[in-house]
Amino acid sequence: MNNRFFKLLPIFAIVLLSSLVIPFGSLHTAYSKNLTNPTDDTLRGSITSNTNNGSSADPAWILGGVFKFSNINSTTASPTFNSTFYMVKVDGTANHTHSLYDFKLAGQPTMDNTLNSTIYNGTSTITMRDGPVNNVPTQINLLGDHAISIKLDGSAIDNHFGSQPIFGTQHLICVEQPSYCQ
């Protein structure tokens, strides 16, 4: 055979392998794309959590709802966080709703590179049975690109949400799989 063929064989192999890798890379990108939040300045997602009753580590309540966090990267506007969620005992009783709104950022967000998170500290208003409670110390933690935790100061709201943060995802299934919500 021609020596030139053997010299070009490694180049041919690299081109062939590269062409096989490109579709795999594109497929990975398609699955990792967050359809709920196509921009970096607004996050929408779901509250998908359970919490205890404050005196036991066992789950006592299920929380489910939605949130919207806007102006996250704005240099001219303060972040806006709003959430409404159901809260129901794990036995299916005592269903009620809460809304969290009027978030006021205190200081600048902080980055935790160890946990791949951004922490926003401030205060918010939360609806309770006897009416809204204002200025509740609130910490919103964006956990990577797919999760969120919300910590509310229990002493301001009679430990209503137990001793654990409220967790959620940065996804809305009705946006990503609309046929499930029709």
Write a short abstract of this structure.
The protein is of the alpha+beta class.
Primary descriptors:
182 residues, alpha+beta, 2 domains, eight-stranded antiparallel β-barrel, 2 helices, 9 strands, 19% helix, 42% strand, globular
Percent helix among the residues? 10-25%
- pLDDT < 50 runs, ≥5 residues: 8-32
The pLDDT mean sits at: 83
How many independent structural domains?
2
Structural class: alpha+beta
Q: Total strand count, please? A: 9
How does this structure look, described?
By secondary structure, the protein is an alpha+beta fold. It has 2 domains: 1-33; 43-181. Helix content is 19%, strand content 42%. It has 2 helices and 9 strands, in the order αβββββββββα. The chain has an 8-stranded antiparallel beta barrel with strand order 1-2-3-4-6-7-8-9. A hairpin with a 4-residue loop joins strand 5 and strand 6 (117-128). The longest helix is centred in the N-terminal third of the chain and has 30 residues, at 3-32. It is globular and about 40 Å long. It starts with a helix and ends in a 6-residue tail after the last helix. The model is unreliable at 8-32 (pLDDT under 50).
